[in-house]
Design a protein that fits this description.
InterPro entries: ARM-type_fold. By secondary structure, the protein is mainly α. Helix content is 71%, strand content 0%.
C-alpha cells in the first residue's frame, strides 16, 4: 500500500503535467460536431475557457511540484554529502542533519535575522541537544559533537560558556551502568577536549565523576569447572537427551556470561580518556589541588609508575602501554606545579626506588615492540626526570641518575633526525622520533642553564660547541632543532665560555642577516580569500551553504595553519640568534669596540647594513605584539646600540632606527606592562627588562 501511494505521489503530478499540456495543445474539447447551434456555441466557448483555465492551473501545480521535488532532492543530496563528509553513521547522521535543517528553516521563518547569529551553526545545534530531556536526542548530540571535535572543530567556546551543559557532561562521566557505556565514552571524549578551560571549583562533584573513569566496573566472571557426575546407570537414549540438555544449558550460560562480561576495550578507552581529562585539568594550579585532595585518586594516577611489573607489562601489552603513557603525562603536569603539593609529589617519586627504577628503565628502553608508544613513554620519562633534577632543593637525585639523563638527552638530540630513519619505519614513527628529539633538546636546554650540568655536557662531548654550531647553521635542519641548538650554545657561552670559540660570532651574524622574517609560504593560496570558513564554526553554514569542496577547504586551512606555525618558529629562531649574539658580546668579547668591528668586518655591507637589517626586524615584529616579538625588538635595540656607539653607521641610519623603535615602544606599551606584571610567574623576566622607554632614551642620546 505504501509503495502505491509513493508511486502516485511521485509520478501522479508528472502525469498531470503531460495530460494538461496535451489537452491545452489539442484545444478541441467538443470534437468535430457541427450540429451545435448558435445558443450552444456560447456555452461551449465558456466551457473551453474554463477548461483552459483548469488545465493551466493543473500545469502550474505540476511545475511547482517539480520545483518542490527538486528542492527536496537537493536537500537530500546535501544531507547525504554532509553526513558522508563528517563521517556520521547513515541512520542517525541523516536524521540529525535533516532535523538541523528543519529547525533552522523554522527559526528563519519566525525571524530571518536568526541567520546572523552563531546559534544557528551545526555545532551550536548539537550543543543544544545536550539540554534535551530525551535520551536519544542527547546521545545523538554527543555523537555529533564527538565526531566534529575529532575532525578538528573547536566547540569549546560554545560549551564552556554554558555551565548547565558542562555540568551535565561532567555528571555523565559518573554513569557507571553498562547500558550507558557509549554515552559515557562520548562525554569523556568531549570533556577531554575541553579540560584545559574547566575550573573544577565551579562544578561540584566533577572530580569524583572524572575519577570514576579510572575504575573498571564489573569483574570477570568466574568459570565453574566443577564436573557433575552422571548417574551410574542410564540408557543410551537417556544419555543423548542428557547431553543435549547439558549442551543447551552450557550455551545459554555462555551467552549470559558474555552479556555480563565487561568490555575490556571500552574500559581501556574510558581510562585513557579519564587520564586525558586529568592532564588537561592539571594545567591549572587550582585544579591540581582538587586532583591531589580526593583520597585514592592520586594513587590511581601514579599506580603504573609504582608498579613492580611496569616494564614487563608495557612490553607485552600495547593497551597497557597507552594507559601508562597517559598516567605519566598527568604525573608530569602535577609535578610541574609550583606549590607544596607539587614539591611533595616530586619528593615522593624521587624517594621511591621502584618509581625511579621504572623511569630509568623506560629512559634506556630500546624494545622494538610498540615502537611509537615506547618513544612516547621515553619522552614522558625524560620530562619527569628533568623536573626532578631541576628541583635540587627538595629532591635528592643521585649524580648517576642526573648524568644518565643528560647522556641520553645528548644521544637523542645529537642523532640524525632527518626525514629518513631506519628501514621499514612508517612516516608516523619518523614523526614520533623527531618529536622525541625535540623533547630531549628542549629539556636539555633547560638543564644546561645549570653551571654544573653545562660543565658535564662539555666534559661528555668536548666538541659539543662545534656540533651544535653545525646544526644551527644547517638550513636543511628543522627550525625547532636549530633554535634549541642556539639556546644550548647560549648556556654554554654563559657557563663554559672557554669551550666556545669566538669564531662563532661571525657565523651567527651571517645567519641573522640571511634569516627570513616572514616565510615564503605566506603568499595567498588558491581559494584562500574566497570566504571559505570551517564547517560550522560561525553560523554561515546554514541549510544550503555547505561547501562543495571540503577537501580543498581543509587543504587551505591546513596550509594557513602550517604557515603560521612556520612564522612562529622563525621568530623563535630569530630571538635565539639575537640573544646568542648578545651573550657572545658580553661573555666572549671583552671590549665593546671589538664586537662592533667584528660586525663591520664580517657583515656584508658593514655595520650600517646590519643596523638597517635590525630596523627592518623591528618594523616586522612591532606589528605582531607577542612576547617573542617584544624581546626581539629589545635585543635588536641593544645590538644596534653597540654599533652606534662605535659610529659604524650613518647618522640617518641611526635616526631611522630610533624612529622605528619609538613606534614599536608606543605599539607594544600595553604588552610590555603585561610582561612586567606576569614576569615572575611566567618566566618572562628576560622579556620584561630592559624597558623599551629606557632603550629609546639611550639610543636617542647616541644620535647626533
Amino acid at each position: 500500500m505504501f509503495n502505491i501511494l509513493l508511486l502516485f505521489n511521485l509520478y501522479g503530478p508528472i502525469t498531470f503535467i503531460g495530460l494538461s499540456s496535451w489537452r491545452l495543445r489539442q484545444g478541441d474539447y467538443h470534437g468535430h460536431d457541427s450540429s451545435i447551434n448558435i445558443g450552444e456555441s456560447s456555452t461551449v466557448a465558456n466551457l473551453m475557457r474554463g477548461l483552459n483555465f483548469f488545465y493551466t492551473l493543473v500545469l502550474c501545480q505540476g511545475v511547482l511540484y517539480l520545483f518542490l521535488l527538486l528542492l527536496v532532492c537537493c536537500e537530500c543530496d546535501l544531507v547525504v554529502s554532509f553526513t558522508r563528509k563528517c563521517k556520521f553513521l547513515k541512520g542517525w547522521g541523516w536524521n540529525r542533519v535533516g532535523a538541523y535543517l528543519k529547525d533552522t528553516r523554522e527559526r528563519c521563518l519566525l525571524d530571518p535575522a536568526v541567520l546572523a547569529f552563531e546559534s544557528t551553526s551545526f555545532p551550536s545545534y548539537a550543543v543544544g541537544l545536550l539540554e534535551s530531556e530525551s535520551q536519544e536526542d542527547y546521545l545523538n548530540g554527543a555523537r555529533v559533537l564527538y565526531l566534529l571535535i575529532n575532525d578538528g572543530e573547536d566547540a569549546s567556546s560554545i560549551i564552556l560558556r554554558s555551565r548547565p551543559k558542562m555540568q551535565r557532561l561532567l555528571d555523565m562521566l559518573g554513569w557507571s551502568s553498562s547500558s550507558n557505556t557509549e554515552i559515557r565514552m562520548l562525554a569523556a571524549g568531549i570533556v577531554a577536549d575541553l579540560a584545559g578551560g574547566i575550573q573544577l571549583a565551579e562544578f561540584p562533584g566533577a572530580i569524583r565523576c572524572v575519577s570514576s573513569l579510572l575504575e573498571i566496573t564489573g569483574q570477570h566472571p568466574l568459570w565453574n569447572n566443577n564436573q557433575q557426575h552422571e548417574p551410574p546407570t542410564i540408557s543410551p537414549s537417556e544419555r543423548r537427551v542428557l547431553n543435549d540438555a547439558r549442551r543447551h544449558a552450557e550455551q545459554a550460560k555462555k551467552k549470559r556470561r558474555e552479556r555480563k562480561k565487561p568490555d575490556i576495550t571500552g574500559c581501556k578507552e574510558l581510562i585513557v580518556q579519564g587520564l586525558r581529562i586529568l592532564e588537561g585539568l592539571a594545567c591549572d594550579p587550582d585544579n591540581c589541588r582538587d586532583i591531589c585532595d580526593p583520597p585514592g585518586l592520586l594513587a590511581k594516577i601514579t599506580a603504573p609508575l609504582y608498579s613492580a611489573t611496569l616494564i614487563q607489562d608495557i612490553g607485552s601489552s600495547e593497551p597497557w602501554a597507552d594507559i601508562a603513557n597517559g598516567s605519566l603525562k598527568v604525573v608530569h603536569q602535577l609535578i610541574r606545579v609550583v606549590s607544596a603539593r607539587g614539591t611533595s609529589l616530586r619528593h615522593e617519586i624521587s624517594s621511591n626506588e621502584q618509581a625511579m627504577s621504572n623511569l630509568e628503565s623506560i629512559l634506556h628502553r630500546t624494545s622494538e615492540a610498540a615502537e611509537a608508544v615506547g618513544q612516547e613513554l621515553q619522552m614522558r620519562a625524560i620530562e619527569i626526570l628533568t623536573q626532578l633534577v631541576l628541583d635540587s632543593s627538595s629532591v635528592n637525585i643521585t649524580t648517576e641518575t642526573r648524568s644518565n639523563l643528560v647522556k641520553k638527552q645528548l644521544q637523542i638530540f645529537l642523532s640524525d633526525g632527518r626525514e629518513v630513519t631506519a628501514d621499514n619505519k612508517s612516516k608516523s614513527e619518523a614523526d614520533n622520533k623527531r618529536t622525541l628529539k625535540a623533547t630531549a633538546g628542549e629539556t636539555l636546554s633547560i638543564l644546561s642553564k645549570n653551571e654544573a650540568i653545562s660543565g658535564f655536557i662539555v666534559m661528555e662531548h668536548n666538541d659539543i660547541a662545534d656540533r651544535l654550531t653545525l646544526m644551527l647553521l644547517d638550513a636543511k635542519e628543522k627550525i625547532k632543532y636549530r633554535t634549541i641548538s642556539a639556546v644550548i650554545l647560549e648556556n654554554l657561552c654563559t657557563h663554559c665560555k672557554e669551550h666556545v670559540n669566538e669564531t662563532l660570532l661571525p657565523k651567527v651574524l651571517a645567519e641573522i642577516l640571511n634569516i627570513e622574517t616572514k616565510p615564503k609560504t605566506e603568499a595567498s593560496l588558491p581559494g584562500e580569500n574566497e570566504g571559505i570558513q570551517p564547517i560550522s564554526s560561525q553560523g554561515d553554514d546554514e541549510e544550503m551553504q555547505y561547501p562543495k569542496d571540503k577537501g580543498r577547504k581543509a587543504h587551505v586551512k591546513a596550509s594557513n595553519r602550517k604557515a603560521k606555525e612556520d612564522e612562529s618558529d622563525i621568530n623563535k629562531l630569530q630571538e635565539a640568534l639575537l640573544s646568542l649574539t648578545l651573550v657572545i658580546r658580553d661573555k666572549l668579547i671583552i671590549e665593546a669596540e671589538s664586537f662592533a668591528f667584528v660586525v663591520q668586518e664580517k657583515s656584508q655591507g658593514g655595520g650600517g647594513a646590519f643596523v638597517e637589517k635590525l630596523k627592518a626586524t623591528v618594523d616586522d615584529n612591532c606589528r605582531q605584539e607577542t612576547p617573542v616579538s617584544l624581546r626581539i625588538v629589545k635585543l635588536c635595540s641593544q645590538i644596534a646600540a653597540s654599533i652606534m656607539r662605535s659610529n659604524l653607521c650613518t647618522n640617518d641610519q641611526k635616526k631611522e632606527f630610533v624612529e622605528s623603535l619609538s613606534k614599536a615602544s608606543k605599539t607594544m606599551a600595553k604588552l610590555e606592562s603585561c610582561t612586567l606584571f606576569a614576569g615572575t610567574d611566567c618566566d618572562l623576566h628576560k622579556t620584561a627588562r630592559p624597558l623599551l622607554s629606557q632603550l629609546e632614551k639611550e639610543l636617542k642620546g647616541l644620535v647626533a
